[in-house]
Amino acid sequence: MQSSGHADLTDLIGGLVSVNHRLTRLAAASTSSTESPAVWRTLAVLRDLGPMRLGELARVSRVSQPTMTKLVHALDDRGWVRRIADAGDARAWLISADPRGLAALDAWRDELVGAMAPYFDDLSHDERETLASAVALIRTRIERADDAARTGAIA
Predict the structure, then answer these.
(1) pLDDT tens digit string along 102-116?
(2) d(CA 120, CA 144)
């Protein structure tokens, strides 16, 4: 039997994930970007976790390796990613975000923020503080999970 505290946490996390998906869909629909969301996710993964092999990038991004191969080729053609030699295995390559790709990601994020700002303009000072606290709290949890992903540990 679950304690009410655990059930409340379960409901809270479920609600957070659900509303985040809805917010992400609204944000994507609110911009003029014609890029696949997978482009931005891939660049964000490389920014957040650093260079990685194609198979690992596919696993972390939750897409098939052939899908990631196509995506990396498209990003490479734009100069948004680089292939760098894997110091641990001379036969292997790591995929790294190029500064041009990170600049494109930042520009898209700025567009996204601009498109979403009107939905939040009417927040009171206290609501903004609450939201800032929630973002900071969630960021620490995600960074912990990112650290675990980098080291192969379980978050």
Answers:
(1) 999 999 999 999 999
(2) 28
